[in-house]
Design a protein that fits this description.
The protein is of the alpha+beta class. It has 16 helices and 35 strands. InterPro entries: 6-hairpin_glycosidase_sf, 6hp_glycosidase-like_sf, GDE_N_bis, MGH1-like_GH.
């Protein structure tokens, strides 16, 4: 295929990357990951970036630096400790070998690193000796300008025109074909040669020597300064100011339960680090990236579910995510990207472009659930009584999304990829073997997933609420009728009477996919489950085959494809279990919901207060601590938001501000205070003390209902 000058065709690495059927290589427990917006850095514990694996400094889905190794007097640095005060900031403490004539090291090495739009590092050598030390400092540097998908898939392509040149400030790396590069500078000026910055220095007795390093990215031929510039104090950098605002404006949670307090604090920190800001829209609220290190970008499904679960912490994430997804909503038919009018995207990337998408960045639309989740989240944001004008502005996008759903659903919403370049499975269990029958046989598309029908049902209900608020009873009734038809058809086709649970989905022949999985827990969450079936569903979810003690397995241990060390066939995903918890609580299974919630919190404690993307599905009776999954992302957005959703479930907090009601009836919480929670345009305080709950700060017209919301209230209110 002919290429235009200055471009590089990477269909194998960008489009085909969606079909990557393996898992990225494990980074190992000895690496350190720093994240900020769309940038991240993976290094060893002494701060080095070693070549040959996945380590590196990344920005705009490009590895700007693939090697950064520090040597003093030709020897590597011995790691002492890594301090990680902020998600974008680490201090690597190490020491050199003993100086000549000394038995022990007297030279401390401090690498104070900030990541964001590039990198800043203040490198200090501190001499603990009474004698001045003459040192040769060498920074070995390399850059392959690899696309993120190449690194993730373990198939980095050699780019022939990557050039590294030296100048007075340091090193310049560029590739004309990729339009990417980096400038690596230092102050004081180094001696710069190919792949090397070196300094010959004297470190005073009991004194310091410091050099400031900065890596600026070059994207599409344009160089931009790293966000933490060496020319300004770090506290003046935009990420630092945003973090301070995040800390100041977020609700304050106090509780006597140390585990709950620590896990929520870690969740807040991680969500803050995953926020995405658009440089050309400085006043716009942020969206949220899916997770580090491989998913530091906007995802439809992940960002929408994360924003939903994070609502008690920050509603601006939901608004920012909805607005950004609306801007890249499908407009045309494009089989390679799977774009269709009204469809909400799956994943946005900023690697080297191949011309597949007309949108800013490479957009892939292969997701069946992002579109109904978009409508659900818009409806939920309105239920919280916030951003009324913004929600109205987004309603046409919700209608376009619903048009796509209703064009595709009859009555069920199926998925099937448009070409062999797309994802085979397009629900949240999107691995190639993620949807299977009880005997382990893989289901073949088109597939209608159980949880997706629940999302569509909830989207229809949300649209009926908007119609009622607009005073349009005819439209309101139309959407209610759609919802009820879907609910009845779902119960008829998905319910397995001989098993007592709902099928995972329907395959291309319309046969129920009879695998027992967590999917039906999402159906409880959305309210599509017939109340007569709910007890049996809850019983199966809490059975030893499904509940590990640390969460709900994605697939029951009694199934043919079960593997507790798999990605989707027996592992535990915290966000999945958190939504199951919400569903159990919705249908009144308080004790079951409490068990799952506190099992997840126990798992978080074992993972140093941070829930990972997933962990292995071994039972707690077999191993007393959860077993890590080697390639799990951390921080990961919906795992970070899961504890916030658990808190909401345990509070049984369910606002419907347009109806001037807030349901709240805590379960499993004896002492908790939340100050500054945004609700109904106000900042309210919730105080739980024993069996009593007090809410202050609500507008006078909003009433607190001290009871759980009945599971089908939304529908019954519309019908009667």
């Amino acid at each position: 295929m002919a290429q235009e000058p200055g471009t590089f065709h990477i269909a194998e690495t960008t489009v085909n990357a969606w079909t990557f059927e393996g898992q990225p290589g494990a980074l190992g427990g000895t690496t350190v990951t720093l994240v900020e917006g769309g940038s991240f850095c993976v290094s060893t514990c002494n701060g080095d970036i070693t070549p040959g694996g996945a380590q590196g400094l990344y920005h705009a889905d490009t590895r700007l630096v693939s090697r950064l190794e520090l040597k003093v007097d030709e020897a590597p640095i011995e790691s002492l400790r890594t301090i990680n005060p902020e998600p974008y900031h680490a201090i690597f403490l190490g020491r050199t070998g003993p100086r000549p004539g000394q038995a022990e090291s007297t030279m401390l090495v401090i690498r104070d690193r900030y990541v964001g739009g590039g990198l800043r590092e203040d490198l200090t050598l501190r001499n603990m000796s009474d004698e001045a030390a003459g040192c040769t400092i060498a920074l070995h540097l390399g850059s392959d300008l690899a696309d993120l998908f190449e690194v993730k898939g373990g198939r980095v392509m050699h780019v022939a025109d990557v050039e590294m040149t030296s100048d007075i400030s340091g090193l310049l790396v560029v590739s004309a074909t990729r339009g990417r590069g980096a400038r690596i500078m230092s102050n004081p000026m180094p001696t710069a040669t190919m792949g090397l910055l070196s300094f010959r220095v004297v470190v005073p007795a009991r004194g310091d020597w410091t050099v400031a390093l900065q890596v600026n990215p070059i994207v599409d031929g344009e160089e931009t300064p790293a966000w933490f510039s060496t020319h300004h104090p770090v506290e003046h950098a935009e990420p630092a100011r945003r973090r301070a605002d995040w800390e100041r404006l977020a609700p304050v949670v106090t509780t006597s339960n140390r585990t709950v307090a620590q896990v929520l604090a870690k969740s807040k920190e991680d969500l803050g680090s995953l926020r995405l800001f658009e440089e050309d829209k400085p006043g716009e609220p942020p969206s949220v990236a899916a997770g580090a290190p491989w998913f530091m970008t906007l995802f439809g499904r992940d960002s929408l579910l994360t924003s939903w679960m994070a609502l008690p912490m920050d509603q601006s994430l939901a608004l920012g995510t909805l607005r950004r997804l609306a801007r890249v909503q499908g407009r045309a038919e494009e089989p390679l990207s799977e774009e269709e009018p009204g469809k909400i995207m799956h994943e946005l990337r900023f690697g080297v472009q191949d011309g597949v998408s007309a949108h800013d960045g490479h957009v892939y639309f292969g997701s069946v659930d992002s579109t109904p989740l978009f409508v659900m989240l818009l409806g939920e944001l309105r239920r919280w009584g916030l951003y009324e004008e913004a929600v109205e502005e987004l309603l046409p996008h919700a209608d376009a999304a619903l048009d796509w759903i209703t064009r595709s659903a009859d009555p069920f919403l199926y998925y099937r990829r448009k070409t062999d370049h797309g994802l085979l499975n397009q629900g949240w269990k999107d691995s190639v073997d993620g949807v299977n029958f009880a005997d382990g046989t893989l289901a073949r598309p088109p597939i209608a997933l159980a949880e997706v029908q629940g999302y569509v049902y909830a989207a229809y209900i949300a649209r009926s609420h908007f119609a009622r608020e607009a005073g349009d009873p005819v439209l309101q009734e139309q959407w209610i009728e759609r919802a009820m038809r879907l609910r009845d058809a779902f119960d008829e086709m998905f319910w397995l009477p001989d098993r007592g649970y709902y099928a995972m989905g329907l395959d291309r022949a319309g046969r129920p996919i009879d695998g027992l999985g967590s999917n039906m827990g999402h159906c409880l969450w959305t309210g599509i489950v017939n109340e007569e079936r709910a007890a049996s569903v809850a019983e199966h979810l809490l059975s030893p085959e499904m509940f590990t003690g640390f969460g709900i397995r994605t697939l029951a241990s009694s199934m043919g494809a079960y593997n507790p060390m798999s990605y989707h066939n027996g592992s535990v995903w915290p966000h999945d279990s958190a939504l199951v918890t919400a569903g159990l609580m919705r249908y009144g299974f308080e004790e079951e919901a409490r068990q799952v919630a506190f099992g997840l919190l126990d798992a978080a404690k074992a993972f140093n207060w941070r829930l990972p993307e997933l962990y292995c599905g071994f039972g707690r009776d077999e191993f007393p601590e959860p077993v890590p999954f080697p390639t799990s992302c951390a921080p990961q957005a919906w795992a970070s938001a899961a504890p916030i959703q658990l808190m909401r479930s345990l509070l049984r907090l369910d606002p419907c501000v347009p109806q001037n009601k807030v349901w709240m009836s805590p379960v499993g919480l004896t002492s908790m205070k939340i100050a500054g929670l945004q609700l109904a345009g106000a900042r309210v305080t919730i105080d739980v003390d024993g069996g009593e709950v007090a809410v202050t700060g609500l507008p006078e017209h909003v009433t607190v209902v001290g009871a759980p919301r009945p599971p089908l209230t939304a529908v019954l209110e519309e019908i009667h």
